[in-house]
Prior knowledge:
It contains 27 helices and 9 strands. By secondary structure, the chain is mainly alpha-helical. The protein folds into 3 domains: 138 residues, no CATH class; 333 residues, no CATH class; 99 residues. Helix 6 crosses helix 19, helix 11 runs antiparallel to helix 12 and helix 11 runs parallel beside helix 14. The longest helix has 27 residues.
Amino acid sequence: MTKSRSFRYGYNAGDLVSSALSGWLFMNLVYLIVTIASGEGLETLHSGVQTYMRNFLTVAVYAAVTVFFVIVFAEVIALVKNGRRILSVLLLSEYIVFSVVTALDLPGSVSEIAFLAAVIVFLIPILLYVASAFRETNGEDPIVPTKEPSAPFAPVLIFGIVASCVFGGVVAAIGVMRYLGYSAPNFDFGIFCQMYADMAKTGTPVTTVERDGLLSHFAVHTSPALYLLLPFYFVFRTPITLAVGQAVILYSGVVPLLLIGRRRGLSNGLLALLSIAYAAYPAIGTGCFYDFHENCFLLPLLLWTFWFSECRRPVPFFLFALLTLSVKEDAFVYLVIFALFLFFSEKRWKTALPLMILSLGYFLLVSHLMKQNGEGVMSWRYSNLLPSGESGLLGVVVTVFTQPGYVLTQIFSSSARDAGKFKYIGALLLPLGGLPCVSRKPSRWILLTPLLLNLLTMYVYQPNINFQYSFGIIAFLFYAAALNLADLSARARSFTAGSLVYSAAACVVAFSLLVSPMIPANANHMKAWKDRHDTITETLAKIPDDASVAATTFLVPHLSQHAELYETYYHTASGWIKTDCDYYVFDLRYGSDDKQESQIKRLKSSGYREVFRDDGAILVLTRLPAEDDPFTP
């Protein structure tokens, strides 16, 4: 047994967090009571956040009270017998009163069940802190195994890679079949197909299909990490490279995960089960259902960052941290959370502070550049947390800090007022048997906070495992699972093995039910529509590569070699027909609705002529003269 690391006077990281939380709750509780007593309620609380944005004194009072509580907690713990127990009960009491007062004045637009679930979720770490204060441990914690097992590592590493190849191969095959079966749409696959085609020619990530005009993708998302896949695209210049590449990138994360588990002392048996759980984890497979996206880089890069942190190797650690930041402008949030984990849970402030500064500095620089030269950061996805008249992530941060009652109402609420977010949490945690949550250390729960990124928004695609927004969160969940497995005592290890067997089995079953059926479904689709697809492929091949084209969504990826390419839906969205394209191409596999027929008639009246039509397959219109048109005999 070894003594728990702490600050001076026996004041540890858990006390620091709990005291700051206590001061924060106290100020919000006072403000909440005063607001309700004055006749106002939570409905006006949110709109009042802009007052905080412009009132430095109020924010200063919040900070001062929080610091005061930290100092008082430190003195009480150091000088008063059972001080930690007294203060833990105070924190619990404050939270209960705060929750009750908020619930009594809950707006009618907020689901009571959603609010109750949020209250319970945030109550759990507080109860863990209270329990730890009353547990007689004499300041001791179980030893965390740091010595790697003597059994050879190569066999389990090979096993993990093979398992990932099997399940990753299924995911790659689904992506390829979606492309070949004309089932992959412009958003987002067509965008990346054209972007990589342009990158291979000019080195710049320029597209025309993303915003219906010539634009660098970095004006929408700053993602230099996309260049990591470019060398492979140089060799295989086809959209299939993106579908296969995404699967390889995602499932390569099994290597750093196994290295982390090995360093933490997990046996080869546990590592083998963990690798199966990773390879068959359903949210990784389903996250590829809408084809390629830059978020796929987050999962392996974060795991490699965690691994080099475990090894205490600063140079590769900060190198992979930079690579993680290069995935997307909002990737800094993951590293800020990891920096908080290193500071509070691992006591590694010499690593945490530089990482925090690097992450925030990078985000401030990139967000400034995007605001000046692009579309800015997509803070609109958190518009439910932005006060009226405000924009930007600063408004979100202030709302979270000053209005916890309102924020609690948003965590499990959805725009459809359904149980979507409950299902989302279950889809992420249940296949792992809840292992990311099984820890005696409240500070370990910091690794679960990335979930809030997808729970606090009303953007329906984020809290949904069928989209790419969970890849960064998955890295944290598996890292937390590996750490928690290693922390369990030898007495509980047999139970742990059983839990991990359940997790591996649950992941395989879920993968079989959610992902694998896409193989026969796509195969049947390709077989049933083969003649039509052959006609479409032959027709598209006749369009000159230097021609400008507007096409319907499922045809865009197959025309990505064209430098000037548009999607008809957006190219005609303004209500008038644009006649700037050499060709208009329409997908007729699913018929032609009134709107599309109207577009076709208006194009013909504007000088376009029909050069090829196969009902049930494809229609091609052109403005080129007959002598320049390859379709004209």
